[in-house]
């Protein structure tokens, strides 16, 4: 369900909490949003990312916000307004309307639902959740590498020390 304190205005970005990610939509007014959905008409919009990841395609739909949200929490989140200038609302809505029922390429890292709506609002597709995922993955890989390196160094010192001890006996 929605947040009681969220009162979206046309052109606002809507962030919807899913189990493992955030789904993004653009508020169009009168209870409707535009968002990226699976190409498969029978698939629920709640599974957009999982299906679209495998098909590498998505479809833009205008749907009721309450249908897209389902039982998930959502909020207005125009967080990029701090660093980017939104287009005029009329222009955002005109651009969004042109995409309805069109298919587009889908890529989690470069062309996902957040990229789509931020491009409509700001003229630039950005996605913090992708940036965070890349940073976390890089940090995890770096940590594993450093742990392996530390283990090798400690093992090397241990073997060298053992050789020195054996030399005197």
Any overview of this molecule?
By secondary structure, the chain is an alpha+beta fold. It folds into two domains: 13-126, endopeptidase fold (from Nostoc punctiforme), CATH 3.90.1720.10; 128-169. 44% of the residues lie in helices and 20% in strands. The chain is built from five helices and six strands, in the order βββαβαβαβαα. The chain has a six-stranded antiparallel beta sheet. A hairpin with a 2-residue loop joins β2 and β3 (32-38). α3 (89-99) packs across α4. The longest helix has 40 residues, at 128-167. It is elongated, with a radius of gyration of 23 Å. The model is unreliable at 132-142 (pLDDT under 50).
Give a short overview.
The protein has helices at residues 48-55, 65-69, 89-99, 113-122, 128-167; strands at residues 13-17, 22-29, 32-38, 57-64, 74-76, 103-105.
Low-confidence segments: 132-142
User: DSSP helix count?
Assistant: 5
Under the CATH scheme, the architecture of the largest domain is Alpha-Beta Complex
The H-and-E topology, N to C, reads as EEEHEHEHEHH
Write down the CATH topology of the largest domain. endopeptidase fold (from Nostoc punctiforme)
Strand content: 15-25%
**What would CATH call the homologous superfamily of the largest domain?**
endopeptidase domain like (from Nostoc punctiforme)
What structural class is derived from the secondary structure elements?
A: alpha+beta
